[in-house]
Amino acid sequence: MKVMKNIPRLIMFAVLTLIAVVFVIPIFYSVFNSFKSQKEILSTTMTFFPNSPSLENYLYVFQHGSQYLGYYVNSLKITFIGVILTVILSAMSGYAFARLPFKGSGAVMAFILFVITFPLAALLIPIYIMEYNVGLLNTTMGLVLPNVMNVLPFSIFIMRGIFLGLPVELEEAARMDGCSVFRTWKDVMAPLAKNGMIIVLVFSFYNIWGEYTMGKTLATQDSAMPIAVALTLLKGDSWNFGVLGAVITMTIIPPVIIFIIFQRQLVDGIAMGAVKG
Q1: d(CA 164, CA 203)
Q2: Is 274 exposed, middle or buried (0-12, 13-18, 19+ CB in 10 A)?
Q3: Is-contact 127 165, C-beta < 8 A?
Q4: Cβ(140)–Cβ(78) under 8 Å?
Q5: Are 197 and 87 in contact (CB under 8 A)?
Q6: pLDDT at residue number 269
Q7: Tens digit of pLDDT for each residue in 73-126?
């Protein structure tokens, strides 16, 4: 009987493992390709692991691909500024919707949730026209602001759920001690919502770092392109798959580091019911 009860769990585990393998294999294949020569990659005998591992592709990127390091720095700047803005704005807005109800707040929250369903492609032309008129095309902030706009609605939804789950008594005690609304949020409520803010940080980092469509549309000059867009420039006359693998490997390092650093807080935040409410 115990075995029969565990069958659904085993099936679910097998399905999830299969899905994980399907997603992970291409990533590892690109990483291993970065240590292969172009000749080995194009060989008729396909190999998953490199026969003679080499760092020549990484040396090529650092010696001859200085522009790609510039693209990398562009992505770091765009992502860092975008994540900071998203975490701060979503934490403040989420607290306002959860603890400071105002007339029409329900309608505003419903509109924010409705915005989440908007396809990004439908907004690209209006965003492009507005940025062209105000001179934000091919600038860091010209890419930061649309990315923040893209991730902020769901981030507000997450933080609202977090603040709704916190005890009201702590807030009331802070008010009785003479704390203002802002100080109550900053000194009492925000520290308690730290795990939810970590979820927003990871969510916004992943979305902004890997965003391609807006970068391709709003960065028409090479000097402003993020790394996700610059990967398509590696083609030249023919693809150098080893160098491409090296750049891809360098591109996936920051998201992996972010996940490793915040893994425990991310799990704790989800356990708190961060997407509830």
Answers
A1: 20
A2: buried
A3: no
A4: yes
A5: yes
A6: 66
A7: 899 999 999 999 999 999 999 999 988 878 888 888 888 888 888 888 888 889
